[in-house]
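Risk mitigation, structural track. In case the binding assays with adenosine-5'-triphosphate fail to produce interpretable data, a predicted complex structure has been prepared as a fallback.
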Amino acid sequence: MTPRSILPGATLGVMGGGQLGRMFVQAAQEMGYFTAVLDDDPTSPAGLVAHYHIATDYLDEQGLAQLMQRSAAITTEFENVPAGALVTLGAHRPVAPTADAVAVCQDRAAEKAQFRRSGVPCAPFALIDTPERLAAVDGALLPGILKTARLGYDGKGQVRVADRAALAAAWHQLGNVPCVLEQLLPLALELSVVVARSASGDVVRLPVQQNLHRDGILAVTQVPAPDATPALQQQAADAAAALAESMAYVGVLCVEFFILSDGRLVANEMAPRPHNSGHWSIDGADISQFELQVRTLTGLPLVAPRQHSAAVMLNLLGDLWWRDGTEKTPPWAAVLALPGVHLHLYGKTSARPGRKMGHLTLTAATPVEARATALQAAALLGLPAF
Ligand code: ATP
Ligand code: MG
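Fallback model:
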């Protein structure tokens, strides 16, 4: 039996008030839903635009009760929402993705176990959670990257280590919390795939995305992926679908992949939500990753998104607001004079270096044109070429 869908006019709830929540809220509102956001920050990007903002901590009982009272179904925009909060909500309302799926993506060790179960290769790694395991670590994993098992993002909670002494120092520096040590792999490319799976098991996806990171933070996404062969793209898409299937996942899932210099594909990590690398879909596809999130949450039909424009996405970090030591607004008027520019700012008031303030999507009829405009926009903003 197909569960009845939740139709426009109902209120959809979201745990977390960041930019991903904001774009979910905007997609839901476009379709005629009311929206409620739970986030303790009174100026959170999603809280500012939602119909209802519940400004409490994720584990606040009254806050959770209010969110449930308001919402016909609840999603999350942030994988570090405490699993307990999603369990509480899930006992009373449809919650997608489920607490179990989010718990897997919250923990790098659980995530790697899931990759193995799904037959998806990942980087060689070891769990380091005791001094004994630290001492016994296989030297073949060095040089490597030590990553905290939980709570890392944008390259935070990671240390590159060359040898055993550096590894021991890094584990200490990270507070001796459970970590995974991954072998440092020779990367030729980074790709990601956004898939959506419905409660009835339908799976659709966005085209494969090619990502460039700077200092551990996503900087540029290009779609179509200029440097990945069709065979590699198919492999990535199949792996992402297999992961969604193996978790009986409901919602939007993004899987990040590395392509190694010998051409092998390995999974890096996954996010139980829309992803920064899928933002281009708002402007470059007829169904965005956020609309997919609305459709999976409400049980509306999943239709394969069609990319109608070549797209390049540039992340806008807080650094752009700081030139020559003083705070200045970036030259938006000059950027907006270029063709096919879509400016997205998240309503964050303070521009700290490294903070994701917004993104720019450049769309065009061809990838060559989209890239050319993106390079012009990057030059105007003082961003490096790619
Ligand atoms: P985010 O949540 O922003 O995606 P994160 O903090 O969870 O990032 P990772 O995705 O694990 O971090 O790593 C960030 C980047 O560091 C990767 O996209 C890649 O460029 C590089 N990196 C991570 N692990 C490895 C590895 N084992 N070998 C080589 N490079 C790596
Ligand atoms: Mg990552």
